[in-house]
Amino acid sequence: MSIPTISCGVSQMPVVGFGTSRTKDPRGEVEMALAAGYRHVDCAYCYDNEPEIGQAFSKVFTNGSIKREDMFITSKLWGTFQRGHLVETACNETLSNLQLDYLDLYLIHWPMPLEPDNKGGYDPESKIDPNPPPFSETWAAMEKLVESGKCRNIGLSNFNIEQIQEVLDCAKIKPVNLQVESHPLFPNTELLEFCKKHGISFVSFGPLGSPGRTWKKEDQISLLDDEDVLKIAQKHNVTAGKVLLRYQIDKGNAVIPKTGTLSRMKENLDIFGFSLDPSDMDCLNNLYKKAGPNGYRIFNYLRYKHSPYYPFASELKI
Q: Against a cut of 0.85, is the pTM above it?
């Protein structure tokens, strides 16, 4: 199966990737996804499963069933490593865990620097860094990873427009990708337009509205059960999930849905036999109004809302 791609710096990124956060069986699920045809895998240090995913990569690269150059692999710099002298250390650990020589894309996972620790491994209790480095320090260290060949491309995740601009203003190598939450209840349109203007590719996480999240409130809309989404699905004789993924593709974005079920993995890849028409897109673009004037963000990471680098403070009026 040939999956369409979008430009991501010096590389081509398949528009449908496999997300690996909160996986129950990281190695098994990645092996299953690769067998199903995925060639874009999204990883992160803080998902705490990169060694297991590395075993899956090693298996397919060693037996020759998939070539490394045919894969697009992303990982992310965790906040405890944002001080400049720690960035390469973090990247080296990720490369070792994933059993790779290079990453296709390395992102600063969140703009909030967290206090470094000497425990080793991911610590979900990490605190806000009392002496946070400026973005310019972290970004300069990210640029060295490109210069050394450890990363083909570098970018950002969960940054707001002002923060992205701050990085652009200091960058010798500009960020080529932004990964953020985006779905019809929170389309993040202004951020997408900013990225298009600056030639930054856009990856949507949570494109299905994260139906399996444990913190969903009873009064929150389920996108997979929304009547308008279901009408569009019926019109094209596809599932609601396929409509939501195709919505991002038709906007020029990439998506990284996650599932541990083979049938769903295959379904999420099978979205290239139809496209949404202007009326569908208009309906989906305005769906957020059902949830309020600005829709609602699912992943707000309020635990770090007191950081001066917290990206959603003005939006959430914190």
A: yes
